[in-house]
Amino acid sequence: MASARDPEYVERVLATAERVPPGRVTTYGAIAEAVGGGPRQVGSVMALHGGGVPWWRVIRADGSLPPSHGEQARRHYYDERTPTLPSGRVDMRSAYWDPAD
DNA sequence: TACTTGACATTTT
DNA sequence: AAAAATGCCAAGT
């Protein structure tokens, strides 16, 4: 299992999350494809070890804010001037950043 | 070993 | 447009 317990996997996930430029966002799925495993796995890793990374730049594929962090994330988005839609969702069209970049 | 659970994704109602 | 159903991958119990 390439996993939340393996520091290596965790490192890769966190490293990718840290590489996300300010004002941009990426998705769990994208990271999952970059580091391997499944989107949920990435989520679990973030949940356990995401304390030191900008998790607010990592959102769901549909642009919805992180399920359990709506308010926090919103504040950060405002600070980083992340393109958001009136509906409270991030503007994926322009703010999306690909980990493979 | 089998079932449940989860910072998700995609498709269909 | 919004909600439900289905699929995925690995951990936790």
Task: Give short descriptive properties of this protein.
single chain; 101 residues; mainly alpha; Arc Repressor Mutant, subunit A; two-stranded parallel sheet; 5 helices; DNA-binding
What do you see in this structure?
- This protein is mainly alpha-helical.
- The chain has one domain (7-95): Orthogonal Bundle (Arc Repressor Mutant, subunit A), CATH 1.10.10.10.
- The protein is 47% helix and 4% strand.
- The chain is built from five helices and two strands.
- A two-stranded parallel ribbon has the order 1-2.
- The longest helix has 13 residues, at 7-19.
- The chain starts with 6 loop residues before the first helix and ends in a 6-residue tail after the last helix.
- The mean pLDDT is 88.
- The chain binds a DNA duplex (13 and 13 nucleotides) through residues 1-5, 27-29, 32, 37-47, 50, 55, 58-62, 66-69.
Which secondary structure elements does this structure contain, and how are they paired or packed?
Blueprint: H1 7-19, E1 26-27, H2 28-35, H3 39-49, E2 58-59, H4 70-80, H5 92-95
Parallel strand pairs: 1-2
The chain binds a DNA duplex (13 and 13 nucleotides) through residues 1-5, 27-29, 32, 37-47, 50, 55, 58-62, 66-69.
Summarize this entry quickly.
This protein is mainly α.
Q: CATH architecture, please?
A: Orthogonal Bundle
| H/E series | HEHHEHH
Average residue pLDDT: 88
Strand order of the largest sheet: 1-2
Full CATH superfamily name: Winged helix-like DNA-binding domain superfamily/Winged helix DNA-binding domain
Please estimate the helix content. Answer: 40-55%
Q: How many independent structural domains? A: 1
Instruction: Supply the helix-strand structural class.
Output: mainly alpha
CATH topology: Arc Repressor Mutant, subunit A
**Radius of gyration in whole Å, from Cα?**
13 Å
